[in-house]
Specification:
heterodimer; A: DNA ligase i, domain 1; OB fold (Dihydrolipoamide Acetyltransferase, E2P); seven-stranded antiparallel sheet; globular; B: alpha/beta; six-stranded mixed sheet; hydrolase (chain B); RibonucZ/Hydroxyglut_hydro (chain B); Metallo-B-lactamas (chain B)
């Protein structure tokens, strides 16, 4: 365990991607099977335990520490597992430090009743770094800046294998991955992916604004455009098992199998292939807002009433597998033709084609992006989040390659609001005041007051964050536990320009409105709070949005 | 009598009312008592300053000989009348060279203002001495139970391991230029590091001062800009902010190390861009804060700059009267900043 904890520790401080890969590869080279397989499982987030849960850690540490001191410490450290690792009052017992494999197997096998004692024993045997690593494994979020993809890249680097090749066989290999290592190191055959309907990592787009002078750099004729729908990116896959039965599955963009939540969609997957698309709610042929889709998500039980009131739908963007043929290496134009043919063969209203948006030059496309209703999206234009631009000759590549795909989002809504409360962030931004509650003006009984309308956690650069943090510390007028109330008078305070994607009516917010994806777009050091926006402005936006 | 009759807070900091003297004032005052030479505690422009001779020399070095109209050096243990029937004396705080706790005695009541202090051994300054008192005003920079500093020599060993592992790279250690840097140098010598230690320009003056006072730092050399590329395998000390500067990039594949108590917390270490965090602190950790509070025998505890709430909570559990002092100017603003914002921030 110490060797693995040291690896996690080094990774967590190593900013360079290539150095991270080298650290992991060194580990995989030095550490024998099956121990290294357990490390790979941990690094790829493939471990989950039935009984060992974050809650168990919380009660273990709660039994041993003062709750108030723990809360203060957690607030400062910004991470529960790390706080527990640092605060753990060690009882010196046997100093045998178990290997990672023994810990993982122990976490799997130990009964729920015995587990707390077992974990406590390990925590006593480990040092701060070891305890931190163990708790990270149990809580399932390593947060060491090394993704599953990076770990697989490190494995690939052991032999002359492309990282994408690892992705392809990944669904067919299991802990402790001895066959995978054997193949990569040239000692064994390529593992078979035996899943009839496996997930394939999706291709993602970069924001077009991140490409300098893109209007000159990119040629319109090289690209196809389509609407970017405001739903949930999914992969709808169906394939035949060895007995010839069709196995349909619906995956989220992270590869989570969400089939059970969408029986209505699953029933329509009566083809062999893999479609990349957007999950939407359609009523009478019209795409509903994301707000409506949210009513359908995260429900524990799926009732017929739910599927009738919130009928799920797939709007298809791309085709990865046609029949049993992997067509990802083909250019977009060929995949698109195959997709159109498949959709018409399926002939099920639950799955339709996301239309392409024809354009001759960038100004024409910009006009359609500005006004999707007349640009072709018609009555569904409210559900358009922007445009996707895809190179016609590009193959389907997992990950977020720069160049073939761009997203060009619609301009967000903006409001100037006043900072009212600030709270420390988590993770990378812990100890900075990085979570802000902001408000707009309203008149109550002849008096102007600020009413909170939202909370934002992102959008600032590190420098801006540091500057707001200083502002918060210097202008605190009240403290409520971890929350600080900040001066917010007409002539004293800080105005934040907040961008957001949409507005919903809300009964949970005192203001009656809720913002979607609010983030800080600019800090108006120049603007006095009295010039910030009023609630009437938001209400007008809301009327427009729901009209 | 009440402790508040002797000591109160003003807009300039903590004030001994009967004597009309401020302790570590944050703005210019007539009469000041200074605990130690760090710039948030020792400022220029007061009418009269009373402090240890070492602290006065540090202030003169930093601000020029005319940093105050009148200086009164007070040796550790020496008792002086400061007016209003108050007697003051200074006692080693173990924080940096010359650092002191201040004992005020008035009508049989004893109050100790700790200033910044630590209990761990430091070859560059006199060790902390607990002073029995009725009121103990303690700092709490690391006043949370997550802060248990490991022995500093273990952290230095970690640094030397890394130097051995990466002989082709320079190791740059971000450390506050007064106190921390010289302590790290002395610890390196104790650990057997015999090569010259290289210094960023901002460290040279104070380090030469330490050497002139007899600190065991061995051979030090200022970094010459054009020779940075040749400093592979060497140890270089610089202010924490220099780690992010262009200055640091001219070294061969530099390893950014940082010596600070904040390095115990990962998010802090990362915010500072530390690749090799060294948990070396010049402040008492959680266990030592508790131990010190008990050793003074004080019945009343005031807690300042840092995580006041946690230590106040613990004191209450021990049956002690305790309250937080939200002193502005250092305290929270300087003691618990978002690091990476400046040198003072990583001074702890």
């Amino acid at each position: 365990m110490n060797r693995f904890a040291a690896l996690l520790d080094r990774l967590s401080y190593e900013p360079r991607r290539n150095a991270k890969i080298r650290l992991m590869a060194d580990y995989f080279r030095e550490v024998p099977d099956p121990e290294r397989g357990y490390a790979l499982a941990a690094l790829t987030g493939s471990l989950s335990f039935r009984h060992a849960k974050p809650n168990m850690i919380r009660s273990l540490i709660a039994e041993r520490t003062d709750p108030y001191l723990f809360a203060l410490s957690r607030d400062f450290v910004g991470d529960t597992a790390e706080t527990a690792a640092l605060m753990w009052p060690v009882e010196h017992r046997a100093n045998y430090v178990p290997p990672l494999s023994e810990i993982v197997e122990g976490l799997h096998e130990t009964t729920k009743a015995d587990l707390p004692n077992r974990i406590a024993g390990w925590l006593d045997a480990l040092d701060e770094t070891g305890r931190w690593a163990l708790l990270k494994i149990i809580t399932g979020s390593l947060r060491i800046g090394a993704s599953a993809r990076l770990a697989k890249t490190a494995v690939a680097s052991l032999g002359g294998v492309e990282p994408d090749e690892i992705e392809l066989v990944w669904a067919g290999v299991r802990l402790p991955y001895e066959d995978l290592f054997a193949w990569v190191e040239g000692r064994g055959p390529r593992p078979e992916n035996t899943d009839p309907a496996p997930f394939r990592p999706p291709m993602l787009a970069t924001a077009i604004e991140d490409t300098a002078n893109w209007r000159e750099a990119l040629k319109p004729e090289d690209f196809a455009a389509e609407w970017k729908w405001d739903g949930i990116r999914v992969q709808a896959v169906a394939g035949r098992d060895p007995e010839g039965h069709l196995v349909p599955r619906l995956y989220s963009r992270t590869g989570e199998d969400v089939s059970e939540a969408f029986p209505d969609v699953l029933g329509a997957l009566n083809f062999e292939g893999a479609i990349d698309g957007e999950l939407l709610i359609l009523r009478e042929g019209r795409v509903q807002s994301f707000n409506v889709l949210q009513q359908r998500l995260n429900r524990k039980t799926i009732t017929p009433k739910l599927t009738t009131e919130y009928p799920a739908h797939i709007r298809a963007y791309d085709l990865l597998v046609d029949g049993t043929e992997d067509i990802r290496p083909l250019p977009l134009t060929e995949r698109r033709a195959r997709l159109e043919a498949l959709i018409s063969r399926i002939a099920n209203p639950v799955i339709d084609l996301s239309p392409q948006v024809p354009f001759a030059d960038w100004p024409e496309l910009a006009a359609k992006r500005g006004d999707p209703a007349s640009g072709g999206a018609g009555v569904d234009s409210d559900a358009v989040e922007g445009l996707m631009l895809k190179r016609r000759d590009a193959p389907y590549v997992p990950g977020r390659p720069k160049g073939p795909w761009f997203k060009w989002k619609r301009d967000p809504f903006n409001v100037d609001a006043v900072l009212m409360y600030a709270q420390r962030g988590s993770g990378k931004r812990s100890s900075f005041y990085s979570d802000y509650t902001f408000g707009v003006w309203r008149m109550v009984d002849g008096t102007e007051e600020l009413i909170p309308v939202g909370k934002a956690y992102s959008g600032m650069t590190d420098e801006e964050l540091a500057r707001i943090d200083r502002f918060v510390r210097k202008n605190t007028i009240n403290r409520f536990g971890p929350v600080r109330e900040v001066t917010h008078e007409p002539d004293e305070g800080l105005v934040l320009e907040v961008a957001f994607e949409g507005l919903n009516r809300s009964t949970r917010h005192r203001s009656g409105v809720a913002m979607r994806f609010p983030r800080i777009s600019r800090i108006r050091w120049d603007k006095p709070p009295r010039e910030a926006d009023r609630i009437e402005h938001l209400e007008a936006l809301l009327r427009e949005a729901t009209a | 009598m009440r402790a508040e009759d002797l000591l109160c807070q003003t807009s300039h900091g903590l004030c001994c009312r009967p004597a009309g003297v401020h302790i570590d004032p944050t703005k210019p005052v007539e009469k000041a008592l200074i605990t130690h030479g760090h710039s948030d505690h020792a400022r220029a422009g007061h009418g009269a300053v009373m402090a240890t001779p070492e602290t006065l020399r540090i202030m003169a070095l930093r601000y020029g000989a005319d940093f105050t109209k009148s200086q009164q050096p007070v040796e550790y243990g020496e008792v002086v009348e400061i007016g209003g029937g108050v007697q003051a004396s200074l006692h080693p705080a173990g924080h940096v060279f010359g650092s002191a706790q201040i004992l005020l005695e008035w009508k049989g009541f004893r109050a100790v203002i700790s200033g910044d202090y630590k209990r761990e051994r430091d070859p560059t300054c006199a060790p902390f001495q607990p002073v029995p008192c009725d009121l103990f005003i303690t700092e709490a920079t690391f006043g949370l139970p997550v802060f248990r500093h490991p022995p500093a020599r273990d952290e230095v060993a970690k640094l030397l391991d890394s130097v051995e592992l990466f002989p082709e790279r320079s190791h740059l250690i971000g450390a506050y230029s007064l106190g921390k840097a010289q302590r790290v140098m002395a610890l390196l010598r104790e650990a057997g590091w015999e090569r010259p230690i290289y210094l960023h320009g901002a460290m040279v003056k104070l380090t030469e001062f330490y050497l002139s006072e007899g600190a065991p730092l061995g051979e030090v050399r200022p970094v010459i800009a054009t020779e940075r590329k040749n400093l592979d395998g060497e140890i270089v000390l610089c202010p924490p902010s220099a780690l992010q500067d262009l200055w640091s990039r001219k070294f061969p594949d530099p390893v950014a190390a940082m010596a600070s108590g904040w390095m115990r917390v990962r998010a802090r270490a990362r915010q500072n861009g530390a690749e090799l965090p060294l948990v070396i602190s010049d402040h008492a950790d959680w266990d030592d804060l508790q131990r010190t509070v008990l050793e003074t025998g004080a019945e009343e505890i005031w807690v300042t700059h840092g995580a006041e709430e946690a230590l106040v909570h613990w004191c209450h559990q021990q049956g002690l009267m305790a309250k937080p002092l939200h002193l502005v100017g250092y305290g929270e603003e300087e003691g618990e900043p978002a690091p990476g914002l400046g040198e003072e921030a990583a001074a702890q």
